[in-house]
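Board notes, transcribed. Complex of a protein with pyridoxal-5'-phosphate.
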Amino acid sequence: MATREFPLVPKEVERIQTPYRRIQTPIPVPESIPILENLRASEPRSMGGQPPIIWSGGDGCVIRDSYGNQWIDFSSGVLVTGSGHGHPKIVEAIQKTAGQGLYHAYCFPTEIRARLTSKLESLLPEPLSRVFLVTTGSEATECAIKLARTYGLRSHDSKKILVTFENAFHGRTMGSQLAGGSPALKSWVGQDNPDFVQIPYPDGFRCPDTSFDVFIDTLARKGVDPSDVCGVMSETYQGCNACLMPVEYAKALRKWCDENGAVLIFDEVQAGFGRTGALFGFEHYGIAPDMACFGKGISGGMPLSAVAGTDELMSLYGPGEMTSTHSANPICAAAALANIEIIVDGGLVENARALEPVLLDAGKKIMADSNGRIGRADGAGLVMALQFVQPNTTTPDPEAAFEVVARSIEKGVMLFAPVGIGGGAIKINPPLLITEQILREGLDVIAEVVAGL
Ligand SMILES: Cc1ncc(COP(=O)(O)O)c(C=O)c1O
């Protein structure tokens, strides 16, 4: 994500004390520097992209270090902790399962796995009737790619093209990066794989024409025979700009897939489990995919992901042929079940929906006051992206986005480093249990920081 490292030089900053934010030290904290330096020395450089704050605890929608500082969390980690940090029901589920002495079971049956898959199945719409539990979002999208290709190849030898979108992100493993839409991220694989084809995403910003004609025309221009397409995969909202596709576009895509025997896959790794103000993001479109990939918010924090699919797709491989060592790890599965119950029974989807206008209206105002530095403020539910641009253009300005993250951290609002794909965006995505008061307090900080750019 980040292309820069935050300097490990303590800076005197204004002291802040509100019920939710507390900054009592220079930032970064002088005593924390040896730990941060140790990390920079012992890990790959890629791990050094996030702000130099040592997370040591959390509670609901705040994050703390061990030096007396506290932040309103607008990151949810990276859109993971929908039910907040340290939720007692998740802590209890983890402790109880560990207390039974069961922290691994491979694919041997467990009751917790059965409870979780049944719960998911009961929440998912037709035709998503089976769920495969794995570990990471990339593993889920890899699995969906494999199933789509396996399905297509049963028809004819050339039906193996996966269509995805420019600027899309589906993970960092080989297949998921080939499916991704950022050339810079896949230069290591080579860009010339004819089985992965990208189409402009209908965001109405960098691709002003949001009609489905662009999909058809781009395929034709790239010489793709629709009958050779095994599947189309899209993030339900595009992660880099938090933009849903137009409903009519999504419906046309569903129809096109049906007419051409292609599997429609929504990558719900970011959108799933309430983030957009609907339990599943694709509900906004009034259609259902043939497969959906989940991760991040499915478990509230423990490493667990899932692929949901039709009976036909999920039966392509026989017993023992599609498995994973850590499939439905019992502790992760228990945490995920507790998390889903908190989200569904605790009204968190409704909370995200109710707070959407507060978030988006603030975003539009911050953009209007930005002197053209923000080109777009878009989102749904409790996720919003502010796209920083060279004034009054659509050219990304990652430096400005980086600056806003750094200054916000100093004022007690936690953000992750600017999203690199598609340009310099910052994402605002607090835990789904945030209150309007805390949300407004954090947004006021961002507004102040942007106004001071
Ligand atoms: C839409 C989407 N798909 C897949 C992934 C990959 O998930 P993971 O990092 O758990 O492999 C991500 C991660 O950011 C994502 O946002």
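The chain has a mean pLDDT of 96. The CA atoms of residues 74 and 298 lie 18 Å apart.
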